[in-house]
Amino acid sequence: NDVRCLFEAQDGALWIGTREGLARWKDGVVTAFTTKDGLPGNGIRGLAQTTKGIVWVWTDIGLARLQENRFVTASVSDGLPPGAITSIAADGFDFLWVGTTTDAASWKDGKWSPLGSASVRNFVTQGPGGTIQCANGEGISQLRASGWHGFAPLASLPKEPIEFLVRLPRS
Fold it and tell me: Are 18 and 3 within 8 A, CB to CB?
């Protein structure tokens, strides 16, 4: 059972995503979660937590949030963009950011807001000045209050698609 991702939650719990489900290790107790607990799929791809403490799980076939020890699946009918999920991230303003193969959206206070961006491969939250950065079909872009702005155009980047983007702290 290969570990795909690890995440430390605000309450100190360690979340462990694998190809066969999700585990939460807290205070020496391990709790397993699968589709029987509401996950849309057992193959875990990523985890994020909003500032209000909502844990989101990206699986091979969908997205869900933990609500009272059960997972609630997010769907296109809720406002999640169609297409396969390519990235999730949470920021310090209680937004969850989700990229898909067709668009991107943010979730806050129970509401999805589409961003109207090209296919988002990866999000990086809390860029310079509070901006959100993402790798998409146009290069690397920043989301500011005035909308999306090109940060690094596609022509200036390697020809292969960007699969991973991370912002390193200054040191």
Answer: yes
